[in-house]
Amino acid sequence: MSEVSSKNKGNKPLWRSARLSVAPMMDWTDRHCRYLHRLLSREALLYTEMVTAPALVRGGALHLLEFSAEEHPVALQLGGSDPEELAEAARLGEQAGYDEINLNCGCPSDRVQSGAFGAVLMQTPELVADCVSAMRETVEVEVTVKCRIGVDEQEPEEVLPDFLGKIRDAGCRRVTIHARKAWLQGLSPKENRDIPPLDYDLVHRMKAAFPDLHISINGGIATLAEAKAYLDRGLDGVMVGRAAYHQPADVLCAADPEIYGTGTVSDPGGAVRQMLPYIEARLSEGAKLNQITRHMLGLFAGKPGARQWRRMLSEGACRTGAGPELVQEALAQVETRAAA
Ligand SMILES: Cc1cc2nc3c(=O)[nH]c(=O)nc-3n(C[C@H](O)[C@H](O)[C@H](O)COP(=O)(O)O)c2cc1C
């Protein structure tokens, strides 16, 4: 893998950070979620939820770009299909401090299709290449793509190499491939994450065909051990979505030593304690406790006290006036159970 020159704010090369990334997930990977994930791994690359270029450029929704400096390295995922509008949205993202701009070519929802972006872009690789070129001409941070292996009746063996070749020629050096098709009619977005079969071997063949492209694999990867196995087999990166959200400690706590050879295994209890001042700061700005704690429910998944933790937070965090002391109390219960 040839080294890509882009640097992020932490001065860590992104191609290295991208050995493990947490997927963009609408309504899930908001700034609070990313802050938590960053406490579990200092190294993994974190992605925002998709933000649409029209919302930023025409709607002026710049609040969607707010994030904490601690989240770096963090990539902004954009949805859109108009090269000029995407270039302007990328400029706003770079100005807001994001380390990377990623174009969504994988989301199959109706809302996204009607805007002619997301997975439907797999059918127009020339347009994607134009979008990549326009963004690259406008920003200095790296421009990357997240795609599927194809849509509907497309033949992935044919369309994927064509797609990758075109975006590579437009200057994209890093791509994440969700290793299944999206079916644009008849399946909900949720079904489109489970029903179309996964074809991991195709992603490996793409790496062999495009050795200079940094390729991350995505889809159905559930553990850190599995992630490591893909890296050992020659892929450049692994993106984990649902498992990282539902069992963040299992996926992220040992990531730094095991994937990057740095640091030590982090401790979910320690992360909770470090969340307390963050929670206080966000509440003082008007956030509600459950907007933050909803991302923390899976922190102790599979460990003693997990159910009680989840129950205390989900029942208590919606109450008026609920604050960090609830989180502290729930943690004390988990730690008592663990010590018993
Ligand atoms: C709730 C949810 C929201 C998602 N939103 C996005 C999104 O905004 N952009 C995107 O590219 N993919 C989105 N995805 C897809 C994930 O990024 C990922 O490709 C998919 O979940 C497969 O990975 P996994 O099996 O590790 O979860 C979303 C997935 C979920 C579960």
TrEMBL record:
Enzyme Commission number, as recorded: 1.3.1.91
Binding site for FMN: P24, M25, M26, Q77, K146, H178, N218, G219, G220, G241, R242
Keyword tRNA-binding recorded: yes
Encoding gene per record: dusA
Protein name: tRNA-dihydrouridine(20/20a) synthase
Cofactor(s) this protein cannot do without: FMN
UniProt record similarity statement: Belongs to the Dus family. DusA subfamily.
UniProt keywords, alphabetically: Flavoprotein, FMN, Ligase, NADP, Oxidoreductase, RNA-binding, tRNA processing, tRNA-binding
Broad enzyme group: oxidoreductase
Catalytic function, reaction form: 5,6-dihydrouridine(20a) in tRNA + NAD(+) = uridine(20a) in tRNA + NADH + H(+); 5,6-dihydrouridine(20a) in tRNA + NADP(+) = uridine(20a) in tRNA + NADPH + H(+); 5,6-dihydrouridine(20) in tRNA + NAD(+) = uridine(20) in tRNA + NADH + H(+); 5,6-dihydrouridine(20) in tRNA + NADP(+) = uridine(20) in tRNA + NADPH + H(+)
GO molecular function, one term: ligase activity
InterPro entries recorded: Aldolase_TIM (IPR013785), DUS-like_FMN-bd (IPR035587), DusA (IPR004653), tRNA_hU_synthase_CS (IPR018517)
Stored HAMAP family: DusA_subfam
Active site, renumbered: C107
Residues of the signal peptide: none
Domain (DUS-like FMN-binding) ranges: 22-331
Sites marked Interacts with tRNA: N104, K190, R193, R307, R310
Lineage: superkingdom: Bacteria
